[in-house]
Write a structure and sequence with these properties.
This protein is mainly beta. 7% of the residues lie in helices and 39% in strands. The strands form seven sheets. It has a five-stranded mixed sheet, with no helix packed on it. Strands 2-3-6-12-10 form a five-stranded antiparallel sheet, with no helix packed on it. It has a five-stranded mixed sheet with strand order 15-26-25-20-21, with no helix packed on it. The termini are far apart.
């Protein structure tokens, strides 16, 4: 190449380079020295075109499917398989803690498998994986601080051996009304997550408690009418209405109203958790409605099943006892329904009330 052409090509290359945008690489020029760029100029040159929206960045991750295994976590990866999700109004006990959904709540039960893919042991307990559920109104709810082996109730805290698998149960307390639209499973902060769309995937509530107006089967009905001889979960106790009778005799030195009588409801209480539980009248709230629609307040008395004595005591895990509640009624007016709730661990006002049908028992009211 001639010296003239070499000189021209050098000039063209310099002009072309001057028209290119500037990207800062390597060591930055020192401010105030020749060639230094203002930070604003660098940021403008490196920014993408179009508006920028803050707070809309979504964590990276996959959209999960039930019964499919995913590896989550970077520094401590673990294999995770969500087997199923299920709505429930039962209480959940893990160790010495019991979670009781309130009247405006239900549980989303999560059953899943964890598997250690590493060649060395790694610990696992409730803090190892974070679950977040978004409800029908897109409000987030975090999981309870407890996990257990599926089918057991002891808290799970183990050192997973290489290739070891465990079936696990945990839960999230969510609103009683509506579906859980999204479940996010996170192993480590800033690591990819798994997102599950649970609409149409989570198992419905039992028919007894399902609001028929919600076709998804995810909403709890406002009033749950319980037939006779059916156990329902009050909280730490299960309750079953066994019998309804009427009497004009005094009970624990209380006389029936003048010209009236008592309606007496006999219940079986069962301790449903793994710890002994005490009971007396103050652990329960009960209101009765008669056939005229009038409400009769709780008499704040709990009687033994067959004796004219007040009932209180302790029940071991799985143990049952029979107790009676009674209410004054006018003559010839039978009882219609009895609303019963439990306040152990949940305030009586917030607890879920179950409505027992008094008209379906073998004992008939006195004419």
């Amino acid at each position: 190449m001639s010296p003239y052409l070499l000189h021209v090509s050098t000039i063209v290359a310099a002009v072309f380079a001057a028209t290119l945008p500037v990207y800062v690489q390597g060591k930055k020029p020192v401010a105030g020295k020749p060639g230094a760029q203002k930070p604003s100029a660098v940021k403008k040159a490196a920014s993408p075109a179009g508006p920028i929206f803050l707070g809309t960045t979504q964590l990276p991750g996959d959209f999960g499917k039930l019964a499919t295994t995913y590896t989550i976590g970077k520094s401590k990866p673990i294999n995770f398989t969500l087997k199923n999700a299920e709505y429930s109004v039962d209480s959940l006990t893990i160790g010495t803690r019991t979670w009781v959904p309130k009247g405006d709540e239900k549980l989303l039960l999560l059953r899943y498998t964890i598997h250690n893919p590493l060649p060395q042991e790694q610990p696992y307990d409730w803090s190892a994986i974070k679950f977040t559920a978004a409800d029908a109104k897109d409000v987030n709810h975090v999981f309870i601080q407890g996990v257990t082996r599926d089918g057991e109730s002891e808290p799970l805290g183990v050192s997973l051996k290489p290739a070891q698998k465990i079936d696990v149960l945990s839960a999230i307390i969510v609103p009683a009304e509506g579906v859980v639209s999204k479940l996010i499973v996170e192993r480590e902060r800033d690591a990819p997550v798994i997102r599950y769309d649970l609409r149409g995937q989570a198992r419905s509530l039992p028919t007894l408690v399902t609001d028929s107006a919600d076709a998804t089967g995810a909403s709890v009905r406002k009033e749950i009418l319980v037939p006779v001889d059916t156990f329902v979960p009050l909280g730490v106790f299960d309750a079953r209405l066994d019998e309804v009778t009427y009497t004009t005799e005094p009970l624990v030195k209380r006389e029936p109203p003048k010209g009236g009588r008592f309606v007496v409801t006999t219940f079986t209480l069962k301790n449903r958790i793994e710890e002994p539980q005490s009971y007396y009248w103050g652990y329960f709230n009960a209101d009765l409605r008669d056939a005229d629609g009038e409400k009769v307040k709780y008499t704040q008395a709990l009687l033994k099943g067959n004796r004219d004595e007040r009932a209180q005591g302790d029940l071991t895990p799985g143990e049952e006892t029979r107790v009676r509640l009674f209410f004054p009624l006018p003559e010839h007016v039978p009882g219609k329904t009895l609303s019963l709730s439990e306040g152990k661990g949940v305030s009586l006002r917030a607890a879920r009330a179950w409505t027992f049908d008094l008209t379906g028992t073998a004992a008939q009211p006195i004419p």
